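Work Package 3 (structural annotation) set out to generate three-dimensional models for the target panel prioritized at the project kickoff. During this period the team completed the workflow that converts sequence records into discrete structure tokens, so that structures can be stored uniformly alongside our sequence database. As a representative example, we reproduce one entry of 413 residues exactly as it appears in the project archive.
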Amino acid sequence: MEAPRSYCGPPVDLSRPRGFSSFLSTRNYRLGGGSKWPPPSRSTPLTWRPLRCAASALPLDVSPPPIDGDPELKMAEGAALERSTAETFGDDNAAIDAAFNGVAIMDLSHFGRLRVTGEDRVHFLHNQSTANFECLTEGEGCDTVFVTATARTIDIAYAWVMKNAILFLVSPSTSNSIAEMLNKYIFYADKVEVHDITQQTCFFALIGPKSNQVMEALNLGDIVGQPYGTHRHYNVNGAPLTIGIGSILSRDGFSFMLSPASFRSVWRSLLSHGAIPMGADAWERLRVLKGRPAPGKELTKDYNVLEAGLSMAVHLDKGCYKGQETISRLITYNGVKQRLWGIKLSGQAAPGTSIMLDGKKVGVLTSYVLGRRDGDHVGLGYAKRHVSQADEVFIGDVKGTLVDVPFLSYTKL
């Protein structure tokens, strides 16, 4: 019989130990604010292993999701973790600094996770969003945008193509509406099902230039350096764990989807290797600094997918899909009239305030947060295409300068 092999990746070197029971320190781990994690149990060392199967077992679905978990257990685990880590989220500036210079971690379990199954899932999703799913294979992933028939933005999703399913991470505010929308377009003969597995799973992101070092230290270096969206399946003491390239706000970093049963142990493991926990306020600040548009702010029915700077997630040559005709016309006739910018501000400004140039309205501020340092103010906003970075604009009485942000792309305009 052929030797066991890694589920997604090169053959496993069985001569090298895959587990690591010694990476957790036996002393208390101290975080900011004086809080401590209790020492790990020596009786149940944490081990992470690739999910493997013999050649004869390959036809089976070894993709972990959906994870059969008790939602009440997840809620209890989450509440306990929130109580025990409440003091660690006090310094937003430290967490943001770690995201740019070290490594930070954010619990995104409140984001929606939709699992689409069935024989027709690839063709169905190919027609329902902007990505070319027909060119992706098992173990790959991408960003894709859900749009209306007129290419107005609903949400940008992070997708994993698994053996028997395609998994989407979507914003908390759009999870239900996207599931309803997908179900609406499933016809009687379509072999497609949409499952919401948000309550049965947990999800968090690891971001920062030292993320690779953390993964190497945890014997997870086999996924480091892989293309964006690549994901692999592991187990933690028998519980399923999927790790993907990309941290939702960046093409770098890593995303973790796992069972509620292993959430606390994995979270603690990453903290023990220097990851700084990031609260919701710090995440929102980082979102604006990175430039990722959010539903209800930058992603609304007022703006199309090209204006929102999401051209990197739009495949123009994949054939028919929802919004395709509008997108093609916008490009053919140079119909994009505005674009999304980062904005450096001289002071506080309220989202919804008009952006003015020479006394004329040229756009609107959509998000505002404090910047990386005390006294810094930044935002996101739409401005007409003739407005440039050289122009000094005003948002109310506040001066502003348009700046590029890393998440957005206008390369196809």
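The first helix runs from residue 71 to 85.
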